[in-house]
């Protein structure tokens, strides 16, 4: 690529009089716009020929990093490869050109797919029924908490206003509880990173509405005390909520419904094929155990005989969206599930767990492993084992970019000062994982032998080390012409 030409901004390639478009002859005449609608000055748009525009944006797209062109071990986000066939199915005109308000007898196939996904998710998670209405994971959390609140209110139990959340929980958990008008109570973790059951016992009373848990938790650890926790929570009259953000390693191993959870959400954009990141679209279906179906949001897709219908809701029912969620996302998830089938979907969790443990065991001699033992889909290092180099987790993350690999999640969870959360997913080959291990070991050696090399990274990317704080506090969001 000619960096001298195509490394420039589109504004810098502009030449007065150049055009990349042609408009048909005006057949409608000229009309004067009111002065209140006219700009005071012409908008400063670049003027380029068509080929320059095409080359500029094509080359610019090469600077994007995605799972299709590199390893993406981003912890707690399941950035795995998603087959393009799922995108093709969702983009078919028979689906994409539908209108959500068209007559039901004209969209029976779409409703069948919607209903089939509901039933598939129920089978995979052990829940009784699902709604696909929520538009994202956090939206699913809010919906699930609304269901829990409606359940307690239906029993005249209005004093249950507290939600217990582990101190290692995703930040959306307490945020969703607060938005739902509930009080957040934090339960501590033990030294091994799991819920402190002794601390939990002291928090349970008749004001608790629910306990929210992610399993495996944010540290990638399976919670071994789930049966006891579920028993204690249920004994006090509260419900168990499962945050499905880390469902990936559970596929084929166990189901939240069998663990004692009453309500849960699933991130289709993590576990079930929709590409994650970029701001959306997402989907956060919510499932409930048998006996809570009546509290699911309306409208709902139901089947009567061989016909699919929409069950409308009344004034007292929960509504979380005008229609039935992100249908394209749901189609991708259904395609993913049907492609893998009952047999192969069982391999997802075990392979994700195998890959994560392989990396952890291969690097624990050079990176600090604060919590020992078997992990699930992800694990956390606390920076380099050699603390004398002055090389930070941020430095390691920046240096990884030089080797064509995305950095893992850093400085989260907050339990460790130099946290580095790594999740390889089940879709990565042993060759890719071995290359990542070798690269991480190379960076550890550099930190000891050439620390300034790591501290100054990245060196091979289109731009070098940026001032993250300055960029966040004083972002430059528009082109500023250089008057020189």
TrEMBL record:
Keyword terms: Oxidoreductase, Pyridoxal phosphate
Reactions performed catalytically: N(6)-[(R)-lipoyl]-L-lysyl-[glycine-cleavage complex H protein] + glycine + H(+) = N(6)-[(R)-S(8)-aminomethyldihydrolipoyl]-L-lysyl-[glycine-cleavage complex H protein] + CO2
CC terms in the record's Gene Ontology section: cytosol; glycine cleavage complex
Residues with N6-(pyridoxal phosphate)lysine modification: 270
Enzyme Commission number: 1.4.4.2
Domain Glycine dehydrogenase C-terminal: 351-449
SUPFAM superfamilies: PLP-dependent transferases (SSF53383)
Family: Belongs to the GcvP family. C-terminal subunit subfamily.
Subunit text: The glycine cleavage system is composed of four proteins: P, T, L and H. In this organism, the P 'protein' is a heterodimer of two subunits.
Protein name (record): Probable glycine dehydrogenase (decarboxylating) subunit 2
Organism: Marseilla massiliensis
């Amino acid at each position: 690529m000619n960096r001298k030409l195509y490394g420039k901004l589109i504004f810098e390639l502009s030449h007065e009089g150049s055009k990349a478009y042609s408009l048909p002859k005006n057949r409608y005449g000229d009309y004067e716009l009111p002065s209140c609608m006219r700009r005071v000055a012409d908008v400063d748009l670049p003027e380029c020929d068509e080929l320059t525009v095409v080359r500029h944006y094509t080359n610019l797209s090469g600077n994007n990093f995605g799972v299709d062109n590199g390893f993406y071990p981003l912890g707690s986000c399941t950035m795995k490869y998603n087959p393009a066939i799922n995108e093709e199915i969702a983009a078919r005109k028979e689906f994409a050109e539908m209108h959500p308000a068209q007559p039901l007898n004209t969209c029976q196939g779409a409703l069948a797919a919607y209903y089939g996904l509901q039933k598939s998710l129920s089978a995979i998670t052990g829940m009784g029924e699902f709604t696909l209405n929520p538009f994202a994971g956090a939206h699913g959390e809010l919906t699930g908490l609304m269901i829990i609140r409606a359940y307690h209110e239906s029993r005249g139990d209005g004093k249950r206003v507290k939600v217990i959340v582990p101190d290692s929980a995703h930040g959306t958990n307490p945020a969703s509880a607060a938005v739902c008008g509930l009080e957040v109570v934090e339960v501590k973790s033990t030294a091994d990173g799991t819920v402190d059951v002794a601390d939990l016992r002291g928090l349970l009373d008749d004001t608790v509405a629910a306990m929210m848990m992610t399993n495996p938790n944010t540290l990638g650890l399976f919670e071994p005390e789930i049966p006891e926790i579920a028993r204690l929570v249920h004994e006090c009259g509260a419900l168990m909520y499962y945050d499905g953000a880390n469902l990936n390693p559970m596929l084929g191993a166990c189901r939240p419904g069998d663990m004692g959870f009453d309500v849960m959400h699933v991130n289709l954009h993590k576990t079930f094929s929709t590409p994650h990141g970029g701001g959306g679209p997402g989907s956060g279906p919510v499932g409930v155990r048998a006996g809570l179906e009546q509290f699911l949001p309306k409208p709902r897709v139901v089947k009567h005989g061989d016909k699919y219908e929409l069950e409308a809701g009344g004034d007292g029912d929960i509504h979380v969206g005008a229609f039935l969620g992100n249908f394209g996302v749901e189609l991708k998830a259904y395609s993913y599930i049907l492609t893998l089938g009952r047999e192969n979907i069982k391999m997802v969790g075990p392979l994700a767990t195998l890959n994560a443990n392989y990396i952890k065991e291969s690097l624990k001699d050079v990176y600090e492993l604060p919590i020992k033992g078997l992990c699930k889909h992800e694990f956390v290092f606390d920076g380099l084992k050699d603390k004398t180099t002055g090389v930070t987790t941020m430095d390691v993350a920046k240096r990884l970019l030089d080797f064509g690999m995305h950095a893992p999640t850093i400085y989260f969870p907050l339990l460790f000062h130099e946290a580095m959360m790594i999740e390889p997913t089940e879709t990565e080959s042993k060759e890719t994982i071995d290359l990542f291990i070798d690269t991480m070991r190379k960076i550890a050696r550099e930190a000891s032998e050439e620390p300034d090399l790591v501290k100054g990274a990245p060196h091979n990317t289109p731009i070098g080390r940026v001032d993250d704080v300055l960029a966040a506090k004083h972002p430059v969001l528009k082109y500023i012409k250089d008057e020189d």
